[in-house]
Specification:
single chain; alpha/beta; 6-stranded mixed sheet; 4-stranded mixed sheet; 10 strands; binds hexanoyl-coenzyme A
Length: about 260
């Protein structure tokens, strides 16, 4: 299927969604958010996609935020609709059975940072810059920034980043836990590929369940979270993957998981 504002392809188990509006530094307008939502709904049911990578086209930007030229004349109803579109799409990313990796190739600002923070893992080019510049435009982050960033880096850092609107480097983002890996721009997709392949070697049900338990448990108290983990852990013993994984170990050869 051809999209106007993004590219999507699947190769060797890796789906790659590339936001493709390089002239506007891949800014997210409502059409783009709608297309992202459609693509994610396809990915959700596509068993050929084991890992989803989200990136931006060109060398300059991942996503430089929501599209300011569209937002400038919006009224509150239209603003709420735009935010709702983004929330739906970003929620779908979080709920996908696949692990999602943001390959942050450049400016990752505002709605772009919020998109990256909806992914499971963030890998950034050393040249990428991160920030929530919304207050400089007279608005607050509206695609989850006050919530997801805070959960990732804590209230103090989130407030510093959001209230100053200042950009931070990929290295700084890594130090505060907003980015997992930083590599040279030329090595970005190689690194992402390497992580994806490590993930794809493992038991598919277990990987899917691990994401689920981590996310669903994050908002629970520790005892309830542990009890939930125990239930999920026990369920893995009903899978063929568990038999295969443990037998292969004991027989000293690699496991061939079938995801059942
Ligand atoms: C629309 C954008 C854009 C954006 C860049 N462009 N960011 N258009 N929305 N968010 C456009 C520019 O207007 C310009 O178009 C072209 O992309 C290249 O950008 P330049 O500014 O010329 O590049 P440069 O000088 O290198 O500066 C790069 C930059 C800057 C630092 C990233 O573009 C910038 O500050 N952008 C805005 C970042 C921002 O405030 N994002 C947060 C948006 S609010 P022309 O036509 O002139 O070539 C947000 C809220 C989310 O995301 C929640 C809302 C509900």
């Amino acid at each position: 299927k051809n999209y106007e504002n993004l590219l999507f392809d699947v190769k060797d188990g890796i789906g790659t969604l590339t936001i493709n509006r390089p002239k506007s530094l891949n800014a997210l307008n409502s059409d783009t958010l709608r297309e992202i939502g459609e693509t994610l709904n396809e990915v959700k049911d596509n068993t050929d996609v084991k890992v989803l990578v989200i990136t931006g086209s060109g060398q300059k930007a991942f996503v430089a935020g929501a599209d300011i030229s569209q937002m400038v004349s919006m009224n509150p109803i239209e603003a709420a609709a735009l935010s709702e579109l983004a929330h739906k799409a970003f929620h779908t990313i979080q709920e996908l059975p696949q692990i999602t990796i943001a390959a942050v190739n450049g400016y990752c600002l505002g709605g772009g940072f919020e998109l990256a923070n909806s992914c499971d893992i963030r890998v950034a080019a050393a040249t990428a810059k991160f920030g929530q510049p919304e207050v400089g435009l007279g608005i607050v982050p509206g695609f989850g920034g006050t919530q997801r960033l805070t959960r990732l880096v804590g209230r103090g850092k989130a407030k510093e980043i959001i209230a100053t609107g200042a950009q931070i480097t990929a290295q700084e983002a890594k130090e505060i836990g907003a980015v997992e890996e930083v590599v040279e721009l030329d090595d970005l997709m190689t690194k992402v590929d390497e992580i994806a392949h490590k993930i794809m070697k493992n038991g598919p049900v277990a990987v899917r369940m691990a994401k689920y338990v981590i996310d669903k448990g994050a908002d629970l108290d520790l005892d309830t979270g542990i009890a939930f983990e125990t239930q999920m852990w026990a369920q893995t013993f009903a899978t063929e993957d568990q038999k295969e994984g443990m037998t292969a170990f004991l027989e000293k050869h690699g496991a061939k998981f079938n995801g059942k």
